[in-house]
Amino acid sequence: MLADALGRPLRFIVTAGQVGDITQAPALLHDQTGQAVLGDKAYDSNALRATIAKMEAEAVIPSNRSRKIIIPHDPIIYKHRNRIERCFNRLKHFRRFATRYERRTIHFTGFIHLAAVMIWMQ
């Protein structure tokens, strides 16, 4: 999921539970603009950092423990990463989202669209 600076959902891609989120990050960032892209250690990859650099944005992603050369990040800006967590928490207020009642992806996606609209209207 991609969220804006206010913690509102912008884009999302539904994947299987065992798929890593970093696989969908370039697709979520396609045609986006911004000054910085915040992510946790799971999003630390050279390919994603190159995608963010093409956007002319700053990658505020802490380096993974296995990285040989640590890439510094701005810890003050990184504190705002909790806004994506707030976005997920707002979505979890909708019981259908939290428990995933819908078994089919198309139905679940439709409900996420509905919940996202309701969050934007608040």
TrEMBL record:
GO terms for biological process: DNA transposition. Residues 4-116 form the Transposase IS4-like domain. One of its GO terms (molecular function) is DNA binding. Transmembrane segments: none annotated. Keywords: Plasmid. It comes from Rhizobium johnstonii (strain DSM 114642 / LMG 32736 / 3841) (Rhizobium leguminosarum bv. viciae). It comes from the Bacteria. This is Insertion sequence/transposase-related protein. It holds the Pfam family DDE_Tnp_1.
